[in-house]
Amino acid sequence: MHTEAGDSREVGLRASKKALTWRTIRATALTLFEERGFDAVTIDEIAAAANVARGTFFNYFENKEAVVVTYGANEAEIQRRLMEQRPTDESLWDSLVAIILGYLDEFEPQIVVHLRLKSGSPTLSRSARPMTQRLVADLRTWALERHSHLPEPEIMLLINVAVTALGTGVHYWQTDQPAADRIAMVHALLDHVGTGLAATRR
What we know:
Blueprint: H1 4-36, H2 43-50, H3 54-60, H4 64-69, H5 75-84, H6 92-119, H7 122-125, H8 133-146, H9 152-171, H10 179-195
């Protein structure tokens, strides 16, 4: 007979095993990409090097591009945490700035790897999933609930402006810059556009 504690331990162990497999596949793939270039590596080679079946690879990643453009097994969870921890009386714009900077604190190294690999791969350069796609979707869901008194077009305007500032800064990142300088560039762009949004309703 299973106890609640026993069931919880089993769930925890399964989650830990899944996270470990995710990290192993991704780390193996990134090593191969760095050594040989993204376009030269096949999914079969990644699976073999990670000591998993080809089908197991697809249990964790939709395709080869997803290995690069997904920054963590718990990426969505981290984004939700960043949103949920914002004060309820904070303006939407101030929350967006804090969330984006928190996002960069978490994922800046992975974004740099993405940029470095993308620069040498026509396939990644045409990747259909923008870096911020999931972030925008999660921000929309959170903001519509947290700031339900604001009209949706206004909410989406602020989100799109903030995410555009993020994307613009990342576009001009140099991979040999110090991480603090890269994040500071995005912060400065957010401050610049935020000046014009200072009168936005809370």
